Amino acid sequence: MMSVEVERKFVCNADTLKTLEKIGAVCLGQRQFCDQYFDTPKFELTLRDLWLRKRKECWELKCPTAVNGTIETSGEQSKAAALCSRYKEITNLPEIQLRLKEVLKDVCNDRETETSRSQEDESWLSKMNLVCFAEFTTVRRSFTLEEEGVQIDLDQADFGYSVGEIEVLVPEGGDVQSALEKIERTAGMLGLTGDQRVEGKMNVYLKRNYPEHYAKLLSEHVL
Ligand code: V4E
Fold first, then answer.
1. How far apart are alpha carbons 135 and 206 in whole angstroms?
2. Cα(150)–Cα(145) distance, rounded to whole angstroms?
3. Atom 25 (ligand 1) nearest CA
4. Residue nearest to ligand 1 atom 23, measured at CA
């Protein structure tokens, strides 16, 4: 139920598809989904680097891992690892609600925030003062490098931003180091050169739609 997503974003260009074919990546197909992100009006989740999302009726909470917390100051990780992000993904709704209750205990009234019994009942959102602050649709083409267990996604968001992602899912307690190495090897195969972190869809969405909050996330080193 819980896994760690290790990923590196990259800029895709006209040659990316050809390169994917050349390195033997297998196309898994194309799909389209709409993402809705939720937070309190004061952005108490995202300021803690917590990202609550609903996609295709499924909930997910991305939480920072311990490593994310020390990423800027440790100075111990390699340059390649610094280009990757890792987040713990919680997909079980009662677990998500428990975690949110802990984090938002000052915001919500305990008596009212019993965890939902059904997926359809979304009254917990308003009880925790959570509102949708971002909604956008993505067309995603996915590829896999089977021997590596790596997935490569090419995303086109409907607000006019495209980004690629090399991603490895590690079961909780699994080998993050080997995931980082797989991502680095894949980046090499794709000929990625830049050593700058590439912005995700949400970064760009926030910059355009919530510039003040975006600036705050930058200054607090969340983004
Ligand atoms: C903004 C953000 C998060 C929400 C979006 O996560 P992301 O993985 O970019 O979305 P997506 O659509 O690719 O999800 P998937 O289909 O892989 O589940 S989660 C963490 N952040 C903050 C963040 C950061 N600190 N640094 C970078 C480069 N990106 C995002």
1. 11
2. 5
3. 223
4. 223
pTM value?
0.89
Q: Is residue 9 helix, strand or coil?
A: strand
CA of 77 to the centre of ligand 1 (A): 20
- Report CA(111)–ligand 1 centroid distance (Å): 33
Q: Regarding beta strands 131-145 and 150-157, do their DSSP bridges make them parallel or antiparallel, or are they unpaired?
A: antiparallel
The whole-chain average pLDDT of the chain stands at 88
Instruction: Please report the pLDDT score of residue 121 as a whole number.
Output: 78
Which domains, from first to last, does the chain contain? 2-219 (2.40.320.10)
Write down the pLDDT at residue 72: 38
Report strand pairing: 161-171 vs 26-39: unpaired
Q: How far is the CA of 112 from the centre of ligand 1 (A)?
A: 31
Q: Which pLDDT value is given to residue 146?
A: 77
- Torsion angle of alpha carbons 100, 49, 10, 60, nearest 10°? 0
Q: Indicate the SS3 state at residue 160.
A: coil
pLDDT in tens, 64-86: 987 544 443 344 567 777 888 89
Report the pocket of ligand 1 as residue ranges, CB < 6 Å: 9, 51, 62, 85, 87, 165, 167, 197, 200-203, 223
**Could you read off the pLDDT of 195-218 as tens digits, one per residue?**
788 999 999 999 999 999 999 999
Ligand 1 midpoint to CA 201 (Å) = 7
Q: What is the position in ligand 1's atom list of the atom closest to the CA of 68? A: 25
